[in-house]
């Protein structure tokens, strides 16, 4: 059983991962199916170097894992429940207020 401090650390780590739009796109893509970095970079329209940095962050956060596949490495969500959590979180946020933005986040110190 996790302590409250450990729960907070885990949720903060997930929040940091979701704080970047590219990492969100990667997680949502991997929610659909495991993928190879080159394919992910092409489908997301970003450079392989940039993708690699974001994948390293997600891997360090424990949200994605690598799976050796011959001479290639495939990425996938570390646990299928992460896909369900992303679905639930997206549905909850859209249900609350889909038209909100954090345009003035720096002024208010939020987001």
TrEMBL record:
CDD domains in alphabetical order: HTH_ARSR (cd00090)
Keywords, ordered alphabetically: Cadmium, DNA-binding, Metal-binding, Transcription, Transcription regulation
One of the record's GO molecular function terms: lead ion binding
Domain of life per record: Bacteria
Cited Gene3D superfamilies: Winged helix-like DNA-binding domain superfamily/Winged helix DNA-binding domain (1.10.10.10)
Segments forming domain HTH arsR-type: 3-100
Flavoprotein is among the record's keywords: no
Any GO BP annotation: regulation of gene expression
Keyword Metal-binding: yes
InterPro entries cross-referenced by the UniProt entry: ArsR-like_HTH, HTH_ArsR_DNA-bd_dom, HTH_Metal-responsive_Reg, WH-like_DNA-bd_sf, WH_DNA-bd_sf
Subunit structure: Homodimer.
Function: Metal-responsive transcriptional repressor for the cmt operon. Binding of cadmium or lead causes the repressor to dissociate from the DNA.
Protein's name in the database: HTH-type transcriptional regulator CmtR
Species whose genome carries this gene: Streptomyces coelicolor (strain ATCC BAA-471 / A3(2) / M145)
